[in-house]
Amino acid sequence: LYFSQGRYGEAEPLYRQALALRKKLLGQDHPDVATSLNNLALLYLSQGRYGEAEPLYRQALALTKKLLGQDHPDVATSLNNLAVLYWAQGDPTSALNLFSQGLEVEEQNLDYNLRTGSESEKQQYINTLSGTTDAAIALHLQQIPNNQKAAHSALTTILRRKGRILDTTTNSWQRLRQNLTPEDQKRFDELNQTNSQLAKLYHQGPGDQSPDDYKTQLEELTKKKETQEKALLEESPEFQRATQVATLKAVQAQLPTDAVLIEFFQYRPFNPKAAQNEQFGKPRYAVYTLHSDGRFQGIDLGLAEEIDPLIKNFTAAIRNPRIRISQVKDAARKLEQAILAPIRAQIGNSNHLIISPDGALNLIPFEALVDKNNQFLIENVTVTYLTSGRDVLRFPVQAPPQQPPVLIADPIFGKPGETVQLAQNPTRSGNWPQRKLPPLPASKDEAKAIAKILPQAQLWLGRQATEAVIKQVNRPSILHIATHGFFEGNQRVDSLVAENPRLQSRLTLLNSGLVLAGVQNYQSGNLADVVQDGVLTALEASGLNLYGSELVVLSACETGLGELSQGEGVYGLRRALVLAGSQSQVISL
Description:
This protein is of the alpha/beta class and 589 residues long. Helix content is 48%, strand content 15%. The protein is built from 24 helices and 19 strands.
């Protein structure tokens, strides 16, 4: 309490008493002693007493390694604490070396926790790492922008952590298991059990065990895990793909020679000398580029509060049918100058931009930006979007589709040819927005035209264009849906989130969806099916089996919108389709 209030003089004797008492009651070699050493060192760091803080941090680090092993999360904490100390003393190079070690330990523990535990536990664990993610980027961009090792560390951290929650909100491990042989499924289950034991042991700590027994148990489980993983890696390309560690070398190897990965990230600058609750500053945008030949670079683009208004003006301009093209181009040019012009030299002659946006940048079509020659980007380059550059590691091994193309269009919402009012009534999926749903006869022509190009396609039109049909698709090569889409924002699920905070990531997927045949019949009570209500939410879409589907097209308005999550992309239909397994998407903003 005294520490948080800045009353350091009153806090110090209490910290010293706690350290002495723990040594007396627990002995010199106990994890709680390391905790007290860290606490006292942090107090000294906050007072600028760096010479007194360093030996305490080093004692805590050595003791933690001795008692808990090299890969324990407390080791990462001690490494990071020591890194902050060196940073505060004006030694960013030493800070970088320590941060790099800490980030590797955190990655190992992140891997354990993402494979096991409840969704809320995974979410909570990832949240604890946001500070070191920001610090790794800030150390590079603020302190040593020309240091390639710092740039390497920052970009690697982004590639490993950005969009990682996306992997936790899906049953991706279950899908992986389903595509393994029975023998590999058994190995997979045994590995998951070992991971669960490791994660539990790390969270619980030694308990009543002696430090030596605790460390031995950790070492035995770690060795068991490594043996099980090796067996699966040797036998299963699917498992090898799913568990490949994201490194710059691995990612660059999957980039086309004419492409450049453009990785945006919204981070908070870090001040190691500030009070603990004031160390992180206002969010800023960073961008890193990576080429197939291994070249990489990162720069700071500026404050998010200055760039986000440019994004808002641009999106408003392209959605306004009454605005002049010159005004659209002006807004597009201003945004391009803020986010792409600074890396034009790094882009060079690359004609394929593989873009991983972050923050509000997720909501813009980069193809519509205007360059210095007053040309739209789409006139000169191809643009591909990823949640994270890590996604390219999925490309080499893809499951084959099991079903020919499926085309769904022109759903009849109520009576044929009539506009239907989507009522604002509670359903099992949430409260739908009040809006009118005019018929979409042109979408029938659209689907029939596509069917001529894809003669093997299954065509579902009119009353057959139902939610049930979509839910029954089984890994089609192409899925094309032409109907009305909607996005409502978080207010629709606020009450549900308040009641079930652990389910926030899933409940947020209730805000967007597709409207299909029979929705009026359900809302009027003429349809008793409580499973198919004529509205396919993003949450429901995430449960589709699109593993191996090469392309999903949502020919509907607002299908690309959703709730933004820093470092995680958009919670909406496009996120849901990735969760479902689709390899690529065409959607609208």
